[in-house]
Amino acid sequence: MESxxxxxxxxxxxxxxxxxxxxRCGVLYAKAQPRAARPAPEALAAEAVPLEFDPSVFRRPEDxxxxxxxxxxxxxxxxxxxxxxxxxxxxxxxxxSVRLLRFMFDILGMFLHELGHAMTAWFCGIAAMPSLxxxxxxxxxxxxxxxxxxxxxxxxxxxxxLTRSPRVRNVGLVGLTLQFxxxxxxxxxxxxxxxxxxxxxxxxxxxxxxxxxxxxPRESFPRRGYAYWGLMVIGAASFVSTFRExxxxxxxxxxxxxxxxxxxxxSDSSTLVDKHGWSELDLIHRYNGLGLACLxxxxxxxxxxxxxxxxxxDALERxxxx
Length: 322
Prior knowledge:
Elements: H1 29-32, H2 41-47, H3 61-97, H4 102-123, E1 128-130, E2 135-137, H5 143-162, H6 166-185, H7 188-211, H8 221-224, H9 227-248, E3 260-261, E4 265-266, H10 268-275, H11 280-317
Antiparallel strand pairs: 1-2, 3-4
């Protein structure tokens, strides 16, 4: 919009005449006349339409394919964690209840049973060698064996620190803690009852640990193939066959495995009762308490495993930038 005509020269104030320039100062009226005010920069910026940037236009196709593959893997992992552990446990429990494959379960449990004896002795500073149906244990604590155990566990800790592997480091720290308990806090009088107790205790604890092999990292040995299925079955068979016996012994003392094993000697239960003065109720309460603690730990691992993989799946399925 143009400004209205001026009645006087904008430069000298001389009355304007019908001519293009002032007769007094010679200025051109057209140049001296003020122009229409331009809009402020803020107004121009307010009227500007912002351009929306869509990063998906510049996203490479292989990135989208990799993301979709990660989403599908997380969904499959969630379904696996949802059904695998309770499914294996329920099937093994049913097979054990109907006495199907019971002998095989006893064989599988025997390995963890004898390993439980041996590991208990190791953490108490006593050399031991597990074998079929019997564990050969030295007669006393060995400073040499204790030093070897300490050296090996300390090496695990340093290896975990140097390689920045928290799992390796934590295994070493847990081992050193158990060794401290077994060699310092457990007196010599309590070592042998603890080793005898460690047989069925090993079946429960080690069996529960094997059932958690599903939750190891995908790059670990159990998850690189299908080894975790076998480990879960072995762990469930060992745990169920042992726990069911002691759970039934609450109401039927005849289920307690007393007796003399040919070529071996007294059973663990007979050793604990006859030699170390434990009562039948002590056996039942301690084994059942340990079994229930293992079940609670398995339930916690199960819930945490589902929660973590669900959080990962939801994060992948969420649109980028949301």
